[in-house]
User: What shape does this take?
Amino acid sequence: MFKGFMKTKNIQNNDLLRTKNIGRQAITFSLAPYPAVRLLFCITAGILLGVFVRLDLEIWLVVCAISLLLLIVCTVFEKLKHTGTFPLPFTVFIYTLFVVISFAAFADYRLNYASLNGLIPYTGKDLLLYGRVESRPDFSEKGTGFMMETEEVFENGKTVKVHDRAKVFIRRVSDSRLQLQQGDMIRVKGKLDYLPEAANRGEFSPRQAARMKQISVQLYTAGPWQVQKEGESRPGLFERYIVNPVYRYITRTLEQLMPDGEERKLATGVLTGEKQYLPEEVFETFKVTGTAHILAVSGFNVGLLVLVVHVLLQRLKVTTTGRWTAFLLVLFILLVYCYVTGNSPSVKRAAIMTAVLLAGQTLGRKSYPLNSLALSDIIILFLDPLDLLNPGFLMTNGAVLGILLLYPRFNARKPEKKGIIRAVWYFLSGSFLVTLAAIIGVSPVIACYFGTFSLVSLLANIPVVLFSTILMYGLVPMLLLNLVSAYVASIFAESALFFATLTLKSADFFSRFPWATISLKPDLTEVLLYYASLGAVIYCAYLKAWGKVAVSLLLGSNLLFWYSFFLHVPPDAPSLVTVNLGRNIAALVTAGNRTLQIDAGSAAKDNKRIARQFEEYNLAAPEAAVQFFSPDSLISLVPARYRMLRADSLLVLPSMVVMRPGEKVLKIWTRNRSLLFVSGTSRLKEEERFKADIVFLWIYRFTAKQREEISSWLNYARPERCIFIPGSFLSRNHLALLHSFAAGNPALEVRSKTLQIVLWERR
Assistant: This one.
């Protein structure tokens, strides 16, 4: 009997051991449940090939056709001869090749090929365009901008049919505001030109951004009097009768129930994604604190909308027909909301992901969030493969992946005991962990594209996201109840106003912290090392191999450190760099590891752009700041040890000497080079003080008199390089004459607003 008991116990222990071993074996990683993830890898590889590998489109198409033919042959062979469960390896390889090459050809076509019947031949000309307002107009203090689908060009008395897209900007005059909307047919007159490059290294490039949208040119219009509506607007029936009325209802409700101010502008941005109405300084506070994502309509807005609809349709989802009816109704509402918010990638991605999850529920099948995210990305990249290079696309995916993969590891336990205090604590801690997971996932992308990292983002996101969430909970009922009772809706409007104020004040509070944000710009290799290390850590944590988690963390940290220390060698600093600041410039002069900053722009925000160039060119912090055009108040803001203000005439540094020979004249001597800054040709003199190796000359008129003054002085001074800087009111004819004059001498050049002047130390 005792032996029997022992035998039974041993059998039970063996069963437990087998169960434990089976459990351990079950903790494995497999991509089998994620077909969309596997396909997304292939699509991403193809797009990157098409963007970065320079091959003719014909070659891509030929390889694509060959792979398609082989894929058909392999498929037919497997249908007739192959009896296995899985396809042959060669068939899998050909299928993968076909997908990769197809998207490579697609990306190459979208990026590098323009319409034959387009607007590029008309650049540099004043003309009249006729076409359709394709995007929702963006109204700002400077003017109105929108995308235009052009159909006709009128030039020199001739009308030519074209098919191309252009970016149009109409300068705002006094309080005038165009009454334009998406779909309007208009005629607009102005000068057509290429979109500009980035003004300085590391800054936003309008040309590159527009190229991703297949736009190469822009039309600048002096004022609204050069725009004329032509006939009735031609939006589609869906936009005319559904999207536009819904959009007008949202904006009209906000105008009726919320007073004009930053709070209403914030509410408009949260609901419709239109953040251009926010003052620049307010938007900057959200950027500094790492909370600018609340201004973008994204997954939270879509999720809240679906939640409200889900509650309203709960009784309808009892039967199969009711479930499908509710699903189709939700799809329709999501489609309308995407159009109302301008079809931004974040909204489309959230809507598609939500639709995939709801479709799985309606079919009674299990849906994997990671698979749904990949499927939404596939659909978006199928519509436009260049979205892969969009910072918004990458940031949204980084944040969502961080939440999907990290948050379950952070918050594996749920509160065992009930109670209000525990529920509140669980909610706050969960919000904190979600924010932490999103920041871990998205921070490298933000730093790579924008060169900044917010040190207070983790703390700032807690109150800002909390208040903006409650703000949304007030705005949605306000919109719905306003259809029935404006009085009841106004109660929710007051609540939304209160939490909008708290959101703004929270962001402002954290933005005032010292060192709220730091400059950090990793290169592509560092970003890939970061994500590779993070992926290894997540995989080991999934397997519950905590020792390997520690090893992955240490290995990743060492790789990043040693790469930055040895392989990523910062370039040598130049001896002179100009910083383009619109109509103004600043100059950074380096000698003997000391940097001199000349001018600071015309506004306090220009100092941030200048500071960014110190980092981009690996320059030492400014030793001294010198006034030339900028007011003394801005020079005083420069974090320099010495300052030479308007009334000062001499500054002596260990490696540089700065002197004012006259009004609006500045002379600088370094160990190897001399520089001269002169405002106006009338101040040029044939004296030793007005001779220099490098000369910056501001020109406000260019007639025969100025031409003679410059020619006489050039014969005397003979500078190595002379840069002409056109004044703000230099006429177009005079500018053309100046370009013609400079073209005849290799030592002369006319300053470009999108080209920095960079000089290196003499060897």
